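WARN  no MSA supplied for this record, continuing single-sequence
INFO  ligand: fe (ii) ion
INFO  echoing inputs
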Amino acid sequence: MGTVQAKNLSPAFGAEISGVEPRLPLDAETRTALKKLFDERSLLVFRNLDADLPFQTYLSEMLIGNDVSDLDKLPVIDKFFVSNKEAGGAAPFGRLLFHSDLMWVENGCQLLSLYGQRIEQPSIPTLFIDNAQAWNTLPEDLRVRVEGLSAAHCQDATSQRSKTQLENVLVSNFEVKETVTLPIAYRHPRTGRTQLYACPQMTHHIVGLSHQESEDLLGELFDHLYRPEAILTHEWREGDLVMWDNIALQHARPNVTADNALRTLRKTMAPAPRRENSGPRYSQAVAM
Ligand SMILES: [Fe+2]
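INFO  complex generated
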């Protein structure tokens, strides 16, 4: 029974999905339709969905092409959530600059999802931008300058950002320092689309440039990536399930404080981290 319907949320990316019952397993036609929409639109929003964690996990793994035929083997992990009121949540307070989770691991986190478990209003939104859209609209002079260049990404490069307004920004200090170097014109491993791949939270520097040259060029790229018309804002309501391609999109959030309305978001990552890796390394890799 394929009844999936989609409404675009912006010209470049994002779709609001209806017609999906959150019961497992989904039929083949529904799975095919959702995977196609996910590859095309990179961000799927389900409103007012009574989704439990196994359903959220199933959808997360299925959308990146993992086998979900054995429901008893779903990698359900019940420890990841973001909250400004409930104890044990990741990234409880602060503003988060644009980033992709685990950007310092190539292809490490392909999909993120958040479910609005307990949301009171007014709620702080999550912001998104599309890396491929940024590349496709990059002015020619900037494109010529970055073609062939690579950038090094690490867990937190916020301290590099002298020109960025950093008031209320949450900074994470990781015990183990990890980096990866990737082309700035980075080809998406699953869709093949070329993307502008750099962000203020995790991109440490552009390889081969001086610190000042690197910061100046990154500043120009950030001005383009985060121009106001490129940003899609998701306003949270209880029962929202938001799933996005963590390589195709970047996300951010405005400042969140304990005084704000209750905001608890249940999170999945796909592929799911193995149990032995689901400690601080991943719980610090916050989403919002
Ligand atoms: Fe995040």
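The pocket of fe (ii) ion is lined by residues 99, 101, 251, 286-288 (CB under 6 Å).
INFO  checksum written, moving to next record
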